[in-house]
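Late entry, evening session. Most of the bench is empty. Finally got around to the prediction I had been postponing all week. Sequence below, unchanged from the version circulated by S.P.
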Amino acid sequence: MTSRHVRRSRVRAAAAVTCLFALACAACTGGPDDTPSPDMKSEAAEGPVVVASGLDVTGSGGVRQQLIEEWNRSHAKNKAQQAKLVELPGGADQQRSQLLGALQSGSARYDVVNLDITWIPEFAEAGLISPMPGTGDGGGDDGTDDIDLDFIKRVHATTVWKGRSYARPFNTDVGLLYYRPDLLTAAGIQTGRQPTAAWTWDDLYASVGTLALSPDRTDDRAGWTTQLKQYEGLTANAIEAFASVGVELADSEGRYTSGPEKLKKGLDELLDRARLGRIQPAALSSDETAALTDFAAGRAVFLRHWPYVYGALKALLPSNAYSVNRLPGVSVLGGQNLAVTADSPRADNARALVTFLTSRESERCLLDAGFAATRASAYTDGSRWPCWPAVAAALRPAGDSPKAAGTADPPPSGAPSPSGEGASGEQGVSARAAYTRTLSAALNEAVQRPRTPYYGAFTHVLQSRVHALLAAKSPDSTAAAVKLDAELRDAFAGR
């Protein structure tokens, strides 16, 4: 038996168990109904190259589809190199389950998979994706022996597992602080006292205290809001709180490194951020859509959210009613990476497609459309490496409401419907340039969520314990830390 098959057998059982934590376990049996079977290898090898991905936050006919069409135009004479994008339904847990089941069973002929950055160790350990060329065992510890160094270093590190890079960064994400200058000014907080890159959480709390004294404050207005519903958004918020006080849960090899005392420190930091009187009470049940709705409606003055919201807000508020800066403390990375499946009979064409989709021009298209780009040149050399002309011309305000990665629920009835980049009310060139600088700086300082092939089990445990603590009338962080420590030890060990 080959080492790859040994790895697959060992991890397949763990992957099957973690499917139980997904929102739709039935999806583990295969891919979409219209996906052809891989049984006839010779026929399948002719094409197209199939890319499996979650839904595009830029809407129907968004930038990912436009990039696929640009690739197809440039390879119009070669049918074997044509590409097709298959969008998987549901939230992140459902998509992960579908991809795991499809690749393990061979029930879907995916050549390229667009993976959440937290899934790379799991798929690599299971032998479901191939190492990228030029990332052999003789490379550096961070897998950057001969990669394109234009990728932001911290973002590229999300592709690496055990010293080898298994993907290329496609689009990234990072937590940012959005705020309402109009509401701050109305409360007497002038421009000089509004958020800067040097802001701390204490600065935010001080402004929240001032807002509470404002005669213009309404009963339903809170200082800030975020995503504390029991889903991956809660994990991101928890890791940011933990990292802000120096608490790391695992090393680069996925080994658990924390303990009850450290966990209590991180839990206390999160409890402090979620204290009543500071945070919108609805945050405990808020996902990305609900938090954005509260912010746009003026029920929160500060908002922790992802970069796509910068484009979404253009359809919701006047340009002088919102702004953005770096998140106080530590921010966590999100995003997706493109990997070539281990059994793809079109591996060479698949790797060429990945190279195109993550090129300088393509990354600029992603940034222009509202994603956070993974290349440094997208933030500094836009004139030298502009978006592909046909893609730039096709980008338009999306008809569908954008949703953050991992958000499965539609906007609530009566909620504002955000649109994509280029919507009416767009902020000026200087504001866009300032946003781009802010985004680039945040990406260069952000941290990763734990790297482990058992991420599904880890995040399930963390969400469950943290949400229960936040919802408790008299939260006991000491007791919660002891329980969380025991459960995390098991999760990181694959038990």
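Two things to note before I forget:
The chain has two domains: 3-174+334-394, 176-333+428-492.
The longest strand covers residues 333-340.
Will write this up properly tomorrow.
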